[in-house]
Each structure stands twice: as structure tokens, then as C-alpha cells.
Design a protein that fits this description.
about 130 residues, Rossmann fold, 5 strands, globular
Length: about 130
């Protein structure tokens, strides 16, 4: 079965770049350009991993993460933050909320692909995400 990634960012060019890159690696890539669309797709598609931007209009990544972790169906989906915010406080807050990774923009596409592959290859029942 093909692994799937949900990529959430309000920058459509960045979404397309990541889609092409992960698609070449053999992943099914779902795209959302808003928090609301991200939550809808996460519930409908149950992706293997979510790459989530922090800074988005209307609903930021923190709120998307809070809602994902509040739902039984989506709480164990690994979330990697993909953001221009590079402060240690932002990183800590995301880890405390349950993020399994934190990649700052601009990023290296090979590094992104490696991180995604490493997390997806970890069996879901061995991930230790906070309740």
C-alpha cells in the first residue's frame, strides 16, 4: 500500500514543490491550503503523516494541531511542523502539542523526504505520541 502525506500550507507554490518531490518518492500526496481543509482531509483520508505550516490565515497550525490531537481518529497521525518560525519556544510548543518533527523553511528537499520516509516507516503502533 502506498504511503500518504497531507501537506498543509497557504503557499500554493510550496505545496506543488513538495507534492512533486514526495510524489517522485512514491507517496500519495494530499494538499490543503487552509486549516479547515487540512482537518477535513485528515478525517476523510487518514494520511500516514501530516506536514503542517504554523503561520496560516484564519486557522494557524497550532489550532489545526490542537484539533487533530483532540480527535480519537486523528490523534495518532504523526505531524511534522514545516515553518519559517525557528525559535526554540515555537519548537518546544509544537513538541509539547505532539509534533514528531520540526523543519524550518527554507528547507532541503532531500532532508524533507528523508524525515518523511523515516517517520512513515515507523510502525504506527510503535509511535509514542502524547494523549
Amino acid at each position: 500500500m502506498m504511503a500518504s502525506a497531507l501537506v498543509v500550507d497557504d503557499d500554493r507554490l510550496l505545496l506543488r514543490l513538495i507534492e512533486l518531490n514526495l510524489g517522485k518518492a512514491g507517496m500519495k500526496v494530499l494538499l490543503a491550503d487552509s486549516g479547515r481543509e487540512a482537518l477535513r482531509l485528515a478525517m476523510a483520508e487518514m494520511p500516514d503523516i501530516i506536514l503542517l505550516d504554523l503561520m496560516m490565515p484564519m486557522m494557524d497550525g497550532y489550532e489545526v494541531m490542537r484539533r487533530l490531537k483532540a480527535e480519537q481518529e486523528t490523534r495518532n497521525i504523526p505531524v511534522v511542523m514545516l515553518t519559517a518560525k525557528s525559535s526554540i519556544n515555537d519548537r518546544r510548543k509544537c513538541e509539547e502539542m505532539g509534533a514528531v518533527g520540526y523543519i524550518t523553511k527554507p528547507f532541503n528537499l532531500e532532508e524533507l523526504r528523508g524525515t518523511v520516509n523515516r517517520i512513515v516507516q515507523t510502525a504506527p503502533d510503535t509511535l509514542s505520541l502524547p494523549e
